[in-house]
Prior knowledge:
By secondary structure, the chain is α/β, with parallel strands linked by helices. The protein is about 45% helix and about 10% strand. Strands 2-1-3-4-5 form a five-stranded parallel sheet, sandwiched between helices. Strands 7-10-13-6-14 form a five-stranded parallel sheet. The protein has a two-stranded antiparallel ribbon with strand order 8-9. Helix 1 links the parallel strand 1 and strand 2. The relative contact order is 0.08.
Amino acid sequence: MTETRYPAFGVLLVDDEPAWLRSLAMTLEGPGGITNIVTCQDSRQVLALLDQQEIGVVLLDLTMPHLSGEDLLEQIQEVHPELTVIVLSGLNQLETAVACMRRGAFDYLVKTVEEERILDAVRRAVMVQELLHENREMRSRLLSERLEHPEAFSAIVTGNRSMRAIFTYIEAVAKGSQPLLITGESGVGKELFARALHSVSGASGPLVAVNVAGLDDNVFADTLFGHVRGAFTGADEVRRGMIDQAAEGTLFLDEIGDLSQTSQVKLLRLIQEGEYYPLGSDTPRRLRARIVVATHRDLPARQRAGQFRSDLYYRLRAHHVHIPPLRERRDDLPLLLDHFLEQASREFGKKRPTYAKELLTLLSNYGFPGNLRELKSMVYDAVGVHTSRMLSMNAFIHAMGLPDQASSEAEEPLADIKNPFTACEELPTLGEAIDLLVTETMRRSENNQTQAARMLGISQPALSKRLKLRGK
């Protein structure tokens, strides 16, 4: 398997000293994990090189023959202002540093400083460039409202505009390296979005999913980092950790909000330093996987309660998508119902049943605390006991906890719905009953006329006419 170069754009090293170029390249490739490196010894060739290759970050020596670092910095800023330039000098000169920063340098470093400071500066520069690339990509996609890889989202059944916007966002950030946080209630399908991002990213490695809920600190470390032989009692064989298994791919950590404080520190160090140690080993290994995490927990609330580290939270949410619950995308109910009916019928070996329009009305007025998972369970249960042409609503009513009705499969579906007028001592007129029904439907649909019309079983123009007659 070919190793993916990181980052996606080149990091250009410019210095007239070959020995220093080799040393700097080794530092960035080894401890830094930066493999997409381009070197240049002649400062006069830099501008032509920038026109020929996709470069994002430039590390520029200050003192060079022919064209000095300061002059080259000025030229780069004039022709390629979008690049991030770090100036390296053999001398710690405050005035020169200030002059370079004024000319647009991202940072000014002395060559003799410790390796970690140079690595940290380069990592920050790479992060800035990735965010700039992603922002440009996002703006382009939002303006065109197009998806480059619609097939990656085929497992997510929706026609909802907010969901389509999430698809666009995921495509925009998919090729970056920063973590992605996916939030949403249980059952909304968070793992499907992680798989979509992995597919769009084009990563050569696999997606490895781990549910970290309930893992104690030792099991968490062993699961992620692995161990060497003899690391602890019973460690008779080497174990590859999930990070190693996900190399060049995506590591998906589900239920991240349930991690203990100790495990949170381990994860934070992994993200900050980009390296880890298998249990029992003194040799560090590079993190070579994109980290995607998901939770149904309210992480800001857990921060305030002291249960989740703020520094880890902000590291994880470099990118963030929130999946809306099913009750906020009721327009997807017909699509989802048809999708799950098709799936269930195929699995049970039955002909796909039809259903009465009242079933959609019933579903539209239910809150679905279990979201898509709950709807799928309802459909599978109903299809499992289904025997006639028309799908009965009894299984759905029972799953929703509504009162059972004395009915049979042969009865009309409307008999499954409780008559709201049985408790009325004085019946309303037909006009009053219609007005009450319209008012309640508009309330439940949050004044969405299209949704309300669907719930009432009438056309949207007919509902609009009715509302106008009432002076609404």
